[in-house]
Amino acid sequence: MGGITLSSSSASLTAVAAKVAAGQRLSAEDGLVLFQSNDLLAIGQMAHMVRLRKNSRKTYFIANRHINHTNICVNRCQLCAFGRNANDVCAYALTLDEIEAKARSCANLNLSELHIVGGLNPDLTLDYYLEMMQRLRRALPGVVIQSLTAVEIEYLARQHHMSCRQVLAALKEAGLDSLPGGGAEVFAPRVRKIICSNKIDGDTWLSVHRAAHELGMRTNATMLYGHVETIEERVDHLLRLRELQDHTGGFLTFIPLAFHPRNTSLESLGMSGTTGYDDLKVLAIARLLLDNFDHIKSFWIYVGAKLAQISLSFGVDDLDGTVVEEKIAHDAGADTGQSMTKNELIHLIKSAGFRPVQRDTLYNVVEEGF
């Protein structure tokens, strides 16, 4: 079927494969067929076909630096091992001087992006974030600042009796360029009640990103999978992202995030984390359902470098980047490294038979031809 080899005789999977080969949009029912199928290689072939259509054999990476500026958080979500109460011995909040110093320490790394997210710390006001953006802009001129999840934006809006759009506009004026995709988790209310009962709902997350897009900011989207969600809830999440993208075109990339249960309050439910099979399946199906997203990212911090490399043949065209320092996934038990060199990323991509392209946040080419 258009170069797709089916190992099963499922008529429904055959029909999905025919739609993929013809370049037709998949439905919610098609998404369920894909998640219900155990024919991972056929799903991977379909996703690879779409990947090649969109990006040929290009595989993107970025020279970036993560900064998690505070782990103090009033939400204390059940899914999170990073957040702390203010009086916790491990609680911290970086000063603006410390954040600026972290940025300046990377001045010789030719970074394209600073990625900054943290907890909902009631002591950090909008003025703190405005000055943060201004300092970072001066410290690393030309580097894209991708900072603050929709959850953080909404919290600042409530703190200051402002709209999310007003907060975004003020931050953009100060230097904010883009929003990361965190905080989306799974949009279904049933799921959020269990894993993040104090967090903004899915509609609010989508509305913050819509506002950012309307202000001319490009953003990312995520889905946290491998906890209590059903396949129906996964499909619903993906299609709601697709719907917003139809209206705004503002999403840059989609990043499935594998849930790490260690040290979270959900660990007691007996969760052991995702398998490589789960990870590849979610990545591939995301590529198939999100036909209006240009890029699908396999974040090696969450799934490991080797599986991220394999995912390049399952619909993925982006491996994220150098990172330098990451706390959120590692507090929840991620056993990956916290940084990767540019040469290591290039080696991963080339040895899998793909063409490395160093990008900036907006997928402008920084360097290629390695």
Question: What structural class do helix, strand and pairing data support?
Answer: alpha/beta
Low-confidence stretches: 325-337
Distance between the termini: 35 Å
> How large is the count of helical segments?
15
Approximately what portion of the residues adopt beta-strand conformation?
Answer: 5-15%
Strand order of the largest sheet: 9-1-10-11
The level of helicity is 40-55%
The largest pleated sheet is described as: 4 strands, mixed
Provide a descriptive summary of the structure in words.
The protein has 370 residues and is α/β, with parallel strands linked by helices. It has helices spanning 11-22, 28-36, 40-55, 96-104, 126-139, 150-159, 164-174, 189-195, 202-214, 231-248, 276-289, 300-303, 305-310, 328-331, 342-351; strands at 58-62, 64-67, 113-116, 144-147, 178-179, 218-225, 251-258, 295-296, 318-321, 355-359, 365-368. The strands form three sheets. The protein has a four-stranded mixed beta sheet with strand order 9-1-10-11, covered by helices on one side. Strands 5-6-7-8 form a four-stranded parallel beta sheet. The longest helix has 18 residues, at 231-248. The chain starts with 10 loop residues before the first helix and ends with a strand.
